[in-house]
Every structure is written in C-alpha cells, then in structure tokens.
C-alpha cells in the first residue's frame, strides 16, 4: 500500500535509500544496528535521506557533512534535550519519513582574524560566539553594516545566533527566541558589565556584524562557530550564508517552528 505524503512533506514517495549515522553512545549504536537490519544502509553520497541517532550536537555535526549535498536529515533522539530531533518509536520508519515535514536552515559564516594575522573561516547552524580566555572581561567594538553601534562592550562574550540556535546558548544568556520565518538574528551579550543594562539586539538576517577586540593582549578572546574554535582573535565578521541550505525533517505537528513557539511558553 502506498503511503500518502503529508502536506508540505519533503518526499512525494517513500524513500528507498536511507543512510544511518549514530553517535558513539551505546544506546545510539544499538538503535542504529536495529534500524540497519530492518531497512539496510545506503552510502551517504547515494542516500535520499540520512537518519541521525544521537543528540542535538550530533545532528549539527551531520548537517555540516550533508548540507552541501542537499541531503535532508531526520533525527531520532538518543541524547538528552533533543530539541532538533524526533522521538524514538516503534512506528514504521519509512512511513514517518514519507510524512515528515521539512524546515530549511541557513548557517552563519564566521570570518575571524587572529592577533598574528592568520585568517579562519567556518559556518554555524547554531551560533557564533566570542568568549574571554582569561579572568579578564573582554572589550569589544560592535559594528553593524559598517556603522559602529556600540563603541565598547565590556563582557564575558557575545553571541550571534540563527533562529534555530536562538533556543540554545542564546536563550541561556537571556536572549530572545526567534521564529524561523522572522528573518532576524539575535545579538546577545554574555554577562555584560558595561553598558550594564544592554540586553542585545535583533538584527535583520542580511546584516553584517563586525566585532573588533580592544586591548587584545591584556584581554584575549576566542571565537567559536559550532565546532570551530579560534583563539587569540583580533576581529570577527559574522553574516548569514544563504548559499548553503540544510534541511531537517520533523514528524507532522512537531516541526521546528512549532517547537520554537512552544518553547516560549514552557515553564
């Protein structure tokens, strides 16, 4: 019997070539072995969809691998929070994939210059953040679209998040949750000392943000884009890269947009 796709589903027919990737944890590896036995295991570069078994961090690692190939990812939660993942169940996996709805994400691109002049570049589906390396708070000048908006921020660090990443580190730092369709990027300070009451900003998604480190030798700072960490930085430029699109699949009525809204009403 054919499985009718849900409205706005990714697949018009049941996918046949499924690749399974799992984190190193025992529970994820056991779940993968069981699924491979039932559905086979396609090579990643030949797969129609990749099923990720692990936590949110592992799914982000997989997105970095598959986004450039246009392969959608469907996550099954074998970790803790599982905000970007679906629940594990005994329901037929092909049925779930066929009815799954897609959310598209564009990463941030970080361009960092070290104090020694070296250049580093990376993308982040969650966030780009700067953070002090020593006991000293850092001093950062913030420019948005070549206009200085904050001449000096004294803080532990600062975050630029994607809408999907707005519920992660950004939320922990008391930044706003942003719906996927809002075309906004939250800019959130981490433990701001001066200006004491500055709580950050919401920027248009096409904004270009430049962070310049002040008193660099006295107040060293690191920059992080998902899994790339660069230490002793002098300058960081952050912008959205719409040339890259990652697709995450969710069970109907449990999509990422719904989760972001629900998170704002969580106790």
From TrEMBL:
Catalytic residue positions: 56 (proton acceptor)
Enzyme class: transferase
Binding-site positions, NAD(+): 56-57, 126-127, 156, 164, 167-172
Top-level taxon of origin: Bacteria
NCBIfam families listed in its UniProt record: PRK04761.1 (NF003406)
Annotated family: Belongs to the NAD kinase family.
Biological role: Involved in the regulation of the intracellular balance of NAD and NADP, and is a key enzyme in the biosynthesis of NADP. Catalyzes specifically the phosphorylation on 2'-hydroxyl of the adenosine moiety of NAD to yield NADP.
Protein name listed in UniProt: NAD kinase
Organism: Asaia spathodeae
